C-alpha cells in the first residue's frame, strides 16, 4: 500500500491511498464466504458455492463492493498511522479507481488536530477576590439556620408577611377553569415570592375562609405563559415563630453547646466556601489567560458538531427537566435567537480550544492518571449527574467513555500545573497559594464547565475531540 498526504489547511488533510489488488485477497475471501452464507444455489450445498458460480449468478461487482467495504477501514487506518495524524471524526472517502485484479485507489479527507506551540505560561498573573468573612455574613448564616427551626401555630387574624397559609387555588383562562388549574391544601409563606406573581398582595389582609381574585401569568402547566384569573381561598393562617438566639438554640440546631461556638463554626465554613470560590475564580482566570497565549486553528466540522451537541443537551436535557422549550428559555433570558447562537458558538470554540491546549500540555508535561484519581473523578461526576456511582460507572463502561473520563482528569491536572506556575494575587495584593488537592479538583470542574461536559448525562456525551 502507498499513501500520500495533502494538507488542505491546518486542521484538514486529504489522504491519497493506492492498494495493490493482492492486498485485497483476505477481504475478497471474506466477501465470498459471507455471500455463501446468505444465498442458495440449486445443486450446491449451503456455504459450498464456488466463487466462479457466485460471480456468474450475482456478479463480480457485488463481491468487489463487499470486499472494498470490508477493507477500506483497515487501509485508511494504516494511512493515518503512517502519517501520524490525530484525526477528528469520520473521514469523507471517495473511491477514485477500482481495477479488478490490479488496483484499488481512494482518497479520504478528514479533520485533524492542529499542531500547537505552547509558549511559556509562567508569566501569567491574575487577581481574585480576597477571602473575607464579615460579622454580617456570619449573622446571615446563623439566621438562615434559625429559619429552618421556626415553628408555626394557627392564629385568628388577617394574613401578613412571614405567615404560613394553607390555600386553595383555581385558575381560569378565557373564563374556563383549566383541567390542571385547581390545587387544594397548598402551603404558602407570604412574601416568599413563590407560586404566582400577585399572590402576596391578594392574600395579605385575608383571614381564614377569605377569598381574593388576581391576574397572573402562569409559570407552568397546560396554559404556561398565558394570563389567568386566579382565585385564592385561605383556609388557615399560621404565624411563624423563630427560636431565640441563645445557647439553647445552638444545642438544638448543632453539635455545639454555645452560640459563640456555633458562630465560630459558621465563620469557618464560610471561609472554606469563599476559599473554594477563590480557587475556582483563579482557575477560570488563568485558563482564560492561557487561551489568549495560544493560537488555535478551528476545525469547522468539529465546531459545527460541538455547537449542535450543546444545543441538543440544552433543549433535551436541561430545559426538558425544567419543562421549558428553547423559545421560552430565550424569552426568560431576554435573548434573541441570533444572540443565543453567537453565545453558543463562542462557548463551543472555547471548549474546543481548552481541550486542544490542555491535551497538548498533558503530553508536554507527561501527566498520567492513576486509578485512584480516576475513581475519585468518577464519584464526583456521578454525584453531579444525580446517579449512583455504580450506575454512572456502568453507563460509562457500556458507552465506551472511560478514555473520555481519563482525558477529563488529565486536562484538570494540566490546568492545575499552569495555575501552580502562574501568580495569583487577591484584591489586597497578597499572593495566594492554593492547596494541591483542592487545586486539582477545582481545575477538573473548571475544565468541565469550559468544555460543556458538566451538564451532559453519562450516556449522551459528545465524541471526544
From TrEMBL:
Q: Which GO terms describe its biological process?
A: 'de novo' cotranslational protein folding; cell division; protein transport; protein unfolding
Query: Which stretches make up the PPIase FKBP-type domain?
Result: 162-215
Where does the UniProt entry say this protein principally localizes?
cytoplasm
Where is the segment annotated Disordered? Answer: 436-465
UniProt KW keywords: Cell cycle, Cell division, Chaperone, Cytoplasm, Isomerase, Rotamase
MF GO annotations: peptidyl-prolyl cis-trans isomerase activity; protein folding chaperone; ribosome binding
* EC identifiers of the protein: 5.2.1.8
Gene3D superfamilies in UniProt: 3.10.50.40, Trigger factor ribosome-binding domain (3.30.70.1050), Trigger factor, C-terminal domain (1.10.3120.10)
Q: Please indicate if the UniProt record lists Kinase as a keyword.
A: no
Task: List the catalytic activities from the record.
Answer: [protein]-peptidylproline (omega=180) = [protein]-peptidylproline (omega=0)
Report the InterPro entries cross-referenced here: PPIase_dom_sf, PPIase_FKBP_dom, Trig_fac, Trigger_fac_C, Trigger_fac_C_sf, Trigger_fac_ribosome-bd_bac, Trigger_fac_ribosome-bd_sf, Trigger_fact/SurA_dom_sf
- Where does it reside? Cytoplasm
User: What does this gene product do?
Assistant: Involved in protein export. Acts as a chaperone by maintaining the newly synthesized protein in an open conformation. Functions as a peptidyl-prolyl cis-trans isomerase.
Tell me the protein family, please: Belongs to the FKBP-type PPIase family. Tig subfamily.
Q: What is this protein called?
A: Trigger factor
High-level lineage: Bacteria, Bacillati, Actinomycetota, Actinomycetes, Kitasatosporales
Amino acid at each position: 500500500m502507498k499513501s500520500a498526504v495533502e494538507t488542505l489547511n491546518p486542521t484538514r488533510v486529504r489522504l491519497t491511498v493506492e492498494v495493490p489488488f493482492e492486498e485485497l485477497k483476505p477481504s475478497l475471501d471474506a466477501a465470498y464466504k459471507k455471500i455463501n452464507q446468505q444465498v442458495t444455489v440449486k445443486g450446491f450445498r449451503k456455504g459450498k458455492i464456488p466463487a466462479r458460480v457466485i460471480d456468474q449468478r450475482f456478479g463480480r461487482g457485488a463481491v468487489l463492493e463487499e470486499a472494498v467495504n470490508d477493507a477500506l477501514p483497515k487501509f485508511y487506518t494504516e494511512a493515518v498511522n503512517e502519517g501520524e495524524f490525530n484525526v477528528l471524526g469520520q473521514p469523507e472517502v471517495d473511491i477514485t479507481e477500482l481495477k479488478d485484479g490490479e488496483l484499488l485507489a481512494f482518497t479520504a479527507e478528514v479533520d485533524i488536530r492542529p499542531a500547537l506551540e505552547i509558549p511559556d505560561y509562567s508569566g501569567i498573573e491574575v487577581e481574585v477576590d480576597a477571602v473575607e468573612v464579615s460579622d454580617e455574613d456570619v449573622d446571615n448564616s446563623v439566621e438562615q439556620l434559625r429559619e429552618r427551626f421556626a415553628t408555626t401555630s394557627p392564629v385568628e387574624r388577617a394574613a401578613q408577611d412571614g405567615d404560613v397559609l394553607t390555600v386553595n387555588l383555581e385558575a381560569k383562562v378565557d373564563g374556563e377553569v383549566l383541567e390542571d388549574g385547581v390545587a387544594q391544601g397548598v402551603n404558602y409563606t407570604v412574601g416568599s415570592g413563590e407560586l404566582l406573581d400577585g399572590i402576596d398582595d391578594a392574600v395579605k389582609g385575608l383571614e381564614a375562609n377569605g377569598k381574593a381574585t388576581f391576574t397572573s401569568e402562569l409559570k407552568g402547566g397546560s396554559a404556561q405563559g398565558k394570563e389567568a384569573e386566579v382565585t385564592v381561598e385561605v383556609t388557615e393562617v399560621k404565624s411563624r415563630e423563630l427560636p431565640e438566639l441563645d445557647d439553647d438554640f445552638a444545642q438544638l440546631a448543632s453539635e455545639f453547646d454555645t452560640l459563640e461556638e456555633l458562630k465560630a463554626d459558621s465563620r469557618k465554613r464560610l471561609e472554606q466556601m469563599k476559599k473554594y470560590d477563590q480557587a475556582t475564580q483563579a482557575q477560570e482566570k488563568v485558563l482564560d489567560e492561557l487561551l489568549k497565549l495560544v493560537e488555535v486553528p478551528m476545525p469547522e466540522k468539529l465546531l459545527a458538531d460541538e455547537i449542535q451537541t450543546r444545543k441538543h443537551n440544552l433543549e433535551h436535557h436541561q430545559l426538558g427537566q425544567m419543562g421549558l422549550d428553547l423559545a421560552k428559555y430565550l424569552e426568560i433570558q431576554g435573548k434573541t435567537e441570533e444572540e443565543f447562537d453567537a453565545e453558543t458558538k463562542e462557548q463551543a470554540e472555547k471548549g474546543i480550544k481548552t481541550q486542544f491546549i490542555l491535551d497538548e500540555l498533558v503530553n508536554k508535561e507527561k501527566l498520567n492518571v492513576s486509578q485512584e484519581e480516576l475513581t475519585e473523578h468518577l464519584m464526583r461526576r456521578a454525584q453531579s449527574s444525580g446517579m449512583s456511582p455504580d450506575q454512572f460507572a456502568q453507563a460509562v463502561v457500556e458507552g465506551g467513555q472511560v478514555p473520555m473520563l481519563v482525558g477529563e482528569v488529565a486536562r484538570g491536572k494540566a490546568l492545575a500545573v499552569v495555575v501552580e506556575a502562574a501568580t495569583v494575587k487577591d484584591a489586597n495584593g497578597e499572593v495566594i497559594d492554593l492547596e494541591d488537592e483542592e487545586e486539582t479538583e477545582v481545575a477538573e470542574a473548571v475544565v468541565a464547565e469550559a468544555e460543556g461536559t458538566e451538564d451532559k448525562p453519562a450516556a449522551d456525551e459528545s465524541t471526544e475531540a
